[in-house]
Write a structure and sequence with these properties.
Elements (H helix, E strand, L loop, with lengths): L2 H5 L64 E8 L1 E2 L11 E2 L4 H16 L6 E9 L7 H14 L2 E11 L6 H9 L4 E7 L3 H6 L6 H15 L3 E7 L6 H15 L3 E6 L7 H7 L11 H14 L3 E4 L2 E3 L6 H7 L4 E4 L4 E5 L5 E6 L3 H11 L3 E7 L1 H12 L6 E2 H7 L5 H5 L3 H8 L3 E4 L2 E4 L1 H4 L2 H19 L7
Parallel strand pairs: 1-4, 1-11, 2-3, 4-5, 5-6, 6-7, 7-8
Antiparallel strand pairs: 8-10, 9-10, 12-13, 13-14, 15-17, 16-17
């Protein structure tokens, strides 16, 4: 099928399945804001295959409750160390023995400095990503959580998530993690085909991964998320669906994230594919992977609530929901990003130094490892609200949009855009009394739609004068 056949106006397709990194560490805005992805590079177009109808579920239109209020804050903590490097990973990661005591001290110091700039009433979610955060000493996690709580109190029901690799999450370590405050884990299974795992240089087998998921569920119940990948070397759609079916039947996960393989320049896997040594499924097959995924997980009782995420009712990742709602988050650790309102009401983008030794030196000298800071105006926050919000199946409610736009309605901003109405008329966007969201077919071309809407937003703000008030 051609791009025109999808939407009638030449929209190019982005699959519902996004990329992934190590240890279950999804490419969140804490590392790379606004995740519009493609296979070989973030600007590469991807066309769909013929089987696209019904790929994305039509979930009930619900938005998070008052627990997501702007007065609360989220914290992302980046742990950059790994035991081995996955062949596809281009995250900020290093194979080295971490100085746990020094890292704990520096992370705690940076937490006090960065959160001390904020005027939020509480921290509602904390997310330890990486790298391989399950290599952290429980005492390191405890030190970070204590520093956060001493600066901006942790909410009594705060979600504290830890991304894990199966080989580094033993039952005793899980007990220790839970004892210091972790109450949710995300386990990077990636595949249940040992050949695929070997091609990714994963350090666990399918059998080991299933055992770890089952053990984690016995402790945390539904607060266990599993990460899987598709489009791997030697993996066709049937093999992917078979592995996913096995996972669902064996572990009955309450939350699942499914990401398409990204070939990132400079990685061993990219070089091998580029040299013709390894082949991966063609980009055109991604709609088939998405359709197979939705079929399997729906039969397992999960609903899609975001481009790459599925859950049982009430089991969504609250931390990631806050990203998609473009709420405030502070990034701690080497290479982390943050976007948050400071005490003087300015919204700040903060980017921490990526190299651990440089970050440590900066924290020891200044109290933080920020390499770059810049103020974000209301227009930038509105752009973030648009792009991140459309990733959710629920999309953008009118109330949420107008709280960020200075009271301007969605139609006030986009009503003059012919591309906006073309996407609505072609059934790629749904614009109704509930708000604005991508349709199942629209999710397949979300990158293109977002680009067009960003251009329309910029033009509208230029015409009206960018006086949107910060949230």
């Amino acid at each position: 099928m051609t791009a025109a056949a999808v939407g009638g106006v030449g929209w190019r397709c982005l699959p519902t399945l996004g990329p992934r990194g190590c240890a279950g560490a999804r490419r969140t805005p804490a590392q790379h804001p606004w995740c519009a992805h493609s296979r070989r590079s973030r600007r590469c177009d991807r066309r769909s295959s013929p089987s696209v109808r019904g790929v994305v579920s039509s979930v009930p239109m619900t938005w998070p409750s008052a627990a997501m209020a702007q007065s609360s804050l989220s914290v992302y903590v980046h742990w950059p160390y790994c035991q081995a490097l996955c062949s596809y990973c281009d995250f900020n990661k290093y194979v080295a023995e971490a100085d746990q005591e020094k890292m704990a001290r520096c992370l705690a110091t940076e937490a006090k400095t960065m959160l001390g700039m904020c005027d939020h009433t509480n921290v509602s979610t904390v997310f330890f990503g990486g790298g391989t955060p399950s290599l952290m000493a429980p005492s390191t996690i405890q030190a970070v959580l204590q520093a956060i709580d001493a600066t901006v109190p942790l909410h009594v029901n705060a979600e504290v998530s830890l991304e894990c690799n199966p080989e580094s999450l033993t039952p005793s370590r899980l007990d220790d993690f839970c004892a210091v405050g972790v109450n949710r884990v995300s386990i990077g299974v990636q595949s249940l085909d040992d050949r695929c795992l070997a091609s990714l240089n994963r350090q666990h087998t399918a059998k080991e991964a299933l055992r770890v998921v089952e053990a984690a569920k016995s402790v945390l119940g539904d607060a266990v998320s599993v990460d899987m990948m598709c489009g791997l070397p030697g993996q066709d759609v049937l093999a992917f669906a078979t592995g996913l079916e096995q996972l669902m039947q064996t572990t009955d996960p309450a939350h699942l994230s499914v990401y398409g393989l990204t070939l990132a320049k400079g990685t061993p896997l990219y070089k091998a594919v580029d040299a013709g040594q390894i082949s991966v499924p063609p980009d055109q097959s991604y709609a088939h992977y998405a359709a197979a995924c939705l079929d399997v997980v729906s039969r397992g009782g999960l609903e899609q609530y975001e481009v790459s995420n599925y859950s049982k009712p009430g089991c969504q990742s609250l931390h990631n929901m806050r990203y998609w709602l473009a709420t405030d988050f502070v990034g701690l650790g080497p290479g982390a990003h943050g976007r948050f309102a400071t005490r003087d009401t300015a919204r700040l983008l903060s980017v921490q130094a990526p190299l651990p030794k440089h970050w440590i030196k900066s924290v020891e000298e200044t109290g933080h490892g920020a390499r770059r800071r810049e103020s974000l105006d209301a227009a930038a926050h509105l752009e973030e609200t648009l792009v991140m919000g459309l990733r959710m199946c629920a999309g953008l409610s009118h109330k949420h949009w107008e709280s960020r736009s200075g009271g301007r309605s969605i139609e006030d901003v986009f009503g003059g855009s012919s591309r906006f109405w073309a996407a609505v008329n072609d059934g790629l966007l749904v614009f109704d009394a509930q708000g604005l969201r991508a349709s199942p077919r629209g999710m397949l071309v979300l990158d293109a739609i977002s680009s067009e809407l960003l251009a329309a937003l910029d033009a509208s703000l230029a015409n009206l004068g960018s006086s949107a008030s910060p949230s």
